[in-house]
Structure formats: structure tokens, C-alpha cells
């Protein structure tokens, strides 16, 4: 038995080969995982943050409906399609195209960004655990840990989440299946309770919670319909058009399993965001919040207290579990990214390392409090690399380029990939900075640009090498 076969037998994660048919899973495993991942702790932050941007009722409710549909279509017809065709992890797939040296740089960036994202989820769970300890909650402007209690709670939560993630995909999926019904129920109950607290007795009352919108809170930008559509579409850009979920869909029995993402998206990124937004609307009416408003400050967005004020101890439990179910698969993905850099290292300990980095990130509230901004730039950086895989798969032969070029030629650094990403990133990020353009408006143009440039540069590069 070869070393690669032995590693696969031990880890069971098939990091460097196609997942065998005996290990394929039906739609039920994915429905539970996506429901758990996207009806999650971050939703308790993102929903309220929409309210701080002064968004109107139409822009929020209809914008989220359209943006989330585009996300589901991206998962189904791009990620699941390619994932079930080759059944490789994102990192192994990229290695065949980019070469080991280039993909190492990508894996390092990808793994670190996943860790920071998981850290924000640990932060969110900590706001719930800290309630019985009368812990001071982080504010929107906080960046550093504010107490010893905060540090201890974050470290404990991070340890538990890391161990679950390190036990592999099966454990992650099982954890999500156990917890997701509780979390979904909690979001729905929170929304209903908030409606009563806001004295909403009709659809017009519900609509008037946002009304025609208003001025954004200090430090926030004004969101319009297209801000909501594009942000909600690309909130998970790294996972769908960025192809990170190839690592998940490689276990799917057929491409149609990609539709299960709708179960998580429309519960988590629609119902849950709106429900959390309603919780924050209740809080804004409190004397405590009004003090912040009077002082020209944005009232804090602490998920634990928001849920606790609505449904008590059940709210605390829901926020804790919601943070866990999102952080688990995120740390799992980060572990796979680091595993690709160090293929001989133990998958378990690599994932534990990813969890440790995420836990350290969770100590700093800024990742959660600036989640709208962080998620936008996170998708903008990673998504264009996914275009390389998509454009090669759908248009590579028509463009006359050799697929899996690095694997077939033995090159370590595919310059066509690097320059396609670098030029696209440089142009569109510069436009965002120079003209103050909302970054999510430029994610799709950067993605398309990277894919087209990859095809053009590959034709030139492959002929030059030949």
C-alpha cells in the first residue's frame, strides 16, 4: 500500500484523490450541514448590521430574495456541477492547474481568511456564554479583548469547536444535523417574539419597521437595493463562485444535491437575517440604546443579549450552537487548505492548528463587528481564483488550452493563473479605493475578468513553453 493510500485510510478525507463512490452521500447530509452553517451565529450580527445601514423595507426584503437566489444558482450550476465531476478538494484541483508553489500561496491566504471568519463566529458564541457572567459586551467600534472573562470564554469555545472540526467531515455533518433544527426554531421564535414586542399587527406594520429607510449609523454606509442584492449574493462568494465548496460537494452523489443550499440560504440568509434585524429594532427602542444614539454612537450589536432578551435561556443556547455549526465547517475548510500545504502532516493536527488560529482571531471583536466589510473583501480576494476552475472546465477546450496544465507538464508555478488574478484584483480594487465603490459591486467583474484573462494568458503561456 502506498503512502498516499495509507494516509487516506487513516484520515478518511481523500485529500489527494477523488472521493470513491462508496463514500458519496445523499442530499440529507448536505441539507443538515447547510442549514446549520447558514442559519448560524453570524446571522445574529448581519441582520442588525443591515439596520445600521439605513436600508428600506423593499430593498431589504426583495433584495435578499433575489441575491440569495443568485447564490443558490451559483452553488448548483457551478460548484456542485464541477465538484461531482472530479470529486477533488479545491486545493488538489487547483494544484493540477496552478502548480504546487502557486497553490501554496493561495492555500495559505485561503486558510487564514477562513480562520478569521471562524473567529468571528467564536466571538458571536462568546456573547451568549458571557451573559451569566455579567460580561461586558463588545461594541461596534471595539477591536481588542475587553476583559479576562472574555478571553477565557473565547478560548474554551474555540477548543470545543476545533476538536469537532478536526474529527472530519462526518462529524461536522452530524453536528450540524443535530443542532440545526434547534437553531432554525430559535430564529423563527425570536422573529415572532420581536414582532409582538414591536406591536406589529399587520403586514404594513411589519413593512414600517424599515419603511423608506433612513440615514446610516455613524461609521456605516448607506445600503440601497443593489447593495443588498450583491452583498447577499457574494456573502459566500468564496464558497460558490470561488469554488471552495468543491471540498464539500465532492462527497455529493449527484449535482442536484447543490439545491440543498437553498435550505440553508433561505432559512439562514433570509428568515434569520430578518428575524435578527427585528431583534435589533426592539433593542433600539430601549433606554440603553437611546443613550448611544443621543451621543452620536451606534448601539452595540451583541447577539447573545439580543436573543436572550427575546427568548431567554433558549436564546443563549441558540446563539452558542449557531456559532458552533458555522465555525465547524469553516475550520474544517481551513484545515484542508493547510493540509494541502503540508500533505504529510496529520489532518487532525492541521485542523487543530487552524482552530487555534481561529480562536485567537475570535479574541478580537473587530472581525465580527465589521462583518459586512470583512465578508465583502474576503469574497473579493478569493472568488476570482474560482473563475480559473470554472472557465477552464466550461471553456478550456474551446479556447484551445490544455486543462490541468501544471499536472501534465510538471510546472510548479503557472504564471497565467497568477497574472490573471493579480491584474483583475489590482484593477478592480484600485477602482474601489479611488472612486469609493462598494466592493461587492466589483466582485463579479473581477471574477469574469480573471477567468477571461486566464484563458488568454494560458494560450500565450502554453505556446511559449511548448
Write a short abstract of this structure.
73% of the residues lie in helices and 0% in strands. By secondary structure, the protein is an all-alpha fold.
Features:
single chain, 466 residues, Hydantoin permease, 73% helix, globular, membrane
What is the number of domains?
1
| Number of DSSP-assigned strands | 0
- The helix fraction, in percent, is over 70%
The CATH H-level homologous superfamily: Hydantoin permease
Under CATH, the topology is which?
A: Hydantoin permease
CATH class: Mainly Alpha
How many helices? The count is 21
Structural class: mainly alpha
Radius of gyration: 22 Å
The run of helices and strands is: HHHHHHHHHHHHHHHHHHHHH
Low-confidence stretches: 1-11
What does this entry look like structurally?
The chain has 466 residues and is mainly alpha-helical. The protein has a single domain, classed as Hydantoin permease, CATH 1.10.4160.10. It contains 21 helices and no strands. Helix 5 packs antiparallel against helix 6, helix 6 crosses helix 16 and helix 7 runs antiparallel to helix 16. The longest helix is centred in the first third of the chain and has 30 residues. It is globular, with a radius of gyration of 22 Å. The two termini are 36 Å apart.
Write the layout of secondary structure elements.
Blueprint: H1 3-11, H2 27-38, H3 43-52, H4 57-86, H5 90-98, H6 100-129, H7 148-166, H8 169-197, H9 203-207, H10 225-234, H11 246-249, H12 261-284, H13 287-294, H14 303-311, H15 313-341, H16 347-362, H17 366-369, H18 371-399, H19 405-409, H20 415-435, H21 440-465
Helix pairs in contact: 2-8, 2-12, 2-15, 3-12, 4-10, 4-12, 5-6, 6-7, 6-14, 6-15, 6-16, 6-18, 7-15, 7-16, 8-12, 8-15, 12-14, 14-15, 15-16, 18-20, 18-21, 20-21
GO molecular function: cytosine transmembrane transporter activity
Keywords: Membrane, Transmembrane, Transmembrane helix
Transmembrane segments: 57-78, 111-133, 148-166, 178-198, 223-243, 264-286, 306-327, 348-368, 374-395, 416-431, 437-457
